[in-house]
Amino acid sequence: MQTENMAAYSIGLFGDDQAHFWMGDLSGLLEEFPQLEYPHKQDFYTLLFVDRADGEVDIDNERIRLDAPKIIIIRPRCVSAVNLNRDAKGKMICFTADFFSLRYNNNNLYDFEFLQSEARPSIRLNGARRDRFLLLLDLLSNEMMLERTESKNVMRSYLNIILHDIQRLYSPLGHMGSKNLKKEKLHKFEGLIDKHFRAEKLPSFYADLLSISTNYLNKICREENGQTAGEIIRRRITIEGQRLLHYTNCSVNEIAGQLGFENVSYFVAFFRKQTNLTPEQFRRKVI
């Protein structure tokens, strides 16, 4: 599943709608948007509500079989590819953080555990939950089609309800609660890593941007993520390396350069320490 250059296309799902929301049926999806079938990145959230389908969805290094009703979550900056049959039943929702934050404080979006970077990307649906989601999706779809006054605010409200229902499935005991300042810092840290990890690999750089000490950054990371700040940075570099090895034909030397390593031997040693495989071994394994 390799291409010369990993697609990072400007998604055409939103059209000219600056509100950054799109919803459609899974039936005939790939005929309308064939680019979804090939590995690509996106800068928005995608929720696939699969009622009945044959096929699979690849998200980074994980393959999800479409063998039962389930919800599939594709987060921004993941590499994904969707392969499903023409007669698939279900809905697809795409939305940006900006769309959600126009009515709700953007940090609320970060509180949903299933939208966080380490969350599992799929959740199975039982009969009762499936029926409830189908109802909510119909209400959201109808509101979008009617385009009445204040429709977008109503759509955001339905989306908020849907996200909370997914959270209940993801974490039945419930962990969303009052505003968590440490969790917000962690998400800001992860966002900064996405912007700077190719050039900046030391926790102290990010601690300075967050106006906190490196020790406090490490404390937050351990409490909220179970890893040190350095481990989170190294994981992000490793994931990007895996994506480039899997989805492009770039040489290991070229990938090392793209990830900011001074020479290829440093990258090979780093990658092997993180994965127990050399880059070439990883590439052969996933092809």
Shape: globular
Compute the separation of the termini in Å: 7 Å
Give me the number of helical elements.
Answer: 12
Mean pLDDT: 87
How many domain modules?
A: 2
Write the element-wise H/E pattern from the N-terminal end onward. EHEEEEEEEHHEHHHHHHHHH
Can you tell me the residue ranges where pLDDT is under 50 for at least 5 consecutive residues?
1-12
* Structural class designation: alpha+beta
Which CATH architecture of the largest domain is right? Answer: Sandwich
Largest sheet composition: 5 strands, antiparallel
CATH topology of the largest domain: Jelly Rolls
Instruction: Order the strands across the largest sheet as they lie in space.
Output: 1-8-3-6-9
**Could you name the CATH homologous superfamily of the largest domain?**
Regulatory protein AraC
Q: Work out the number of β strands.
A: 9
Q: What percent strand?
A: 15-25%
Q: What would you report as the Rg, rounded to the nearest angstrom?
A: 20 Å
CATH class of the largest domain: Mainly Beta
Helix content: 40-55%
Topology:
Layout: E1 21-25, H1 29-32, E2 40-41, E3 45-52, E4 55-59, E5 62-65, E6 70-74, E7 79-84, E8 89-95, H2 97-101, H3 106-110, E9 122-124, H4 127-146, H5 151-170, H6 181-196, H7 203-210, H8 214-225, H9 229-247, H10 252-258, H11 264-275, H12 279-286
Antiparallel strand pairs: 1-8, 2-7, 3-6, 3-8, 4-5, 4-7, 6-9
